[in-house]
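Run Protein involved in meta-pathway of phenol degradation through structure prediction, thanks.
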Amino acid sequence: MSSSFQTDINTRNPATDYKNGVEYRHEFAVGQHVGPFTLGMGGFYYRQFSDDDAPGLDTGNRARVVAAGPAISYFTPGMPAAWFHIYKEFGARNRTEGYTVALRVGHSF
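Sure, done. The structure for Protein involved in meta-pathway of phenol degradation is below.
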């Protein structure tokens, strides 16, 4: 089982005079180890705490979405680790809704 919380505080883009609102993410996963693999479910909750700000932009532009789906990881000591997930997004507000598909590979030196 794993869980992480993140908050992003954005600054204004001087080229576009646009500032994204404060963003919050909670990522979570639960899995079962099977040899070098971990099989399970994961997902995230994303919510924007404050409005985006730009000239002419309506107030209340705060995004949010929840996603969940299958996840698999692979780890053998001395080898690169790999993580793969496909999350279905739902309950989206003020943003697109679809699938989040990711493959990550990491190696410690």
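The chain has one domain: 2-106.
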